[in-house]
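Morning. Coffee machine broken again, so started the prediction first thing and wrote up yesterday's gels while waiting. Chain of 211 residues, entered below exactly as on the submission form.
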Amino acid sequence: RSSGAYGAATLAITGLFAALITFADAAFRRFNVNAESPLFSVVFLFVAILAFNPLRNRLQALVDRLFDRDRAGHRDALREISEAMVSMLSLGEISERLLLAIHDTIPVSRSLVLLLDEPERRLMPTAWRGEWRGEARGFSLEASHPVARHLWMRRQELSAADFESAADPETRERCREVFDALDVRLLVPILFGVDLLGGIAIGEKLSGDKL
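Came back before lunch.
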C-alpha cells in the first residue's frame, strides 16, 4: 500500500511538473521571452527542482505516517531521545528517558537498565519501569558471566533461545537463570566503541506479539 501511495504521489508530482513546464512555455511564447537559451533552461530546471523537493519530502513523510506509523514513531522517539540526552548529565536521567521511550513505542510489561559498575565489574540496575519483583531490583550480573560476554562479543540483542545450542549444559542453565530471574524476553547491549557499558532488559510485549 505504501509503495502504491509513493507511486501515485510520484505520478502526481510528475504531472504537476509537466503542467508547469507547459504553462511556462506557453507564457514565454506569448510574451516573446527567449526560452531557447540553454542557460535559461538550466536555471528554470534548477528553480523547479528546488520548488518540488520540499513537496516531495512532505508527501513522503505523509505516506510514512499513514502506512508505516510504527517505524515513523520509532524514528521520532530516537530523535527525541537524542535531543533529550544533549541536555542530560545524569546517567539516571538518561536511563529513565530510554525506558520511557521503550514503553511509549513498544509497550512492554517491564524494562530495566543495567550499567557496568567498574570497581565491582558487575552490571547493576540503575533504572526500571513496569512491574518488577522485589528480588529483581537487587539483581546484578558479573561481567564475566556468559550472558554479559555474549552481549559484549556478539554486540546484538540476546534471547534465552540463543543459548539453547550451547554445548555446555552448565552454560545453558546459567543463561536461562538470568532470563528467569528477571522474567524478561530480551537483553540489548549498551555499547561504546569496543566496551560494554551495560544492557537493557525487556519483558514481553503487552500485545503478546514477539519482540
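The chain has seven helices and five strands. Going to sketch it on the whiteboard this afternoon.
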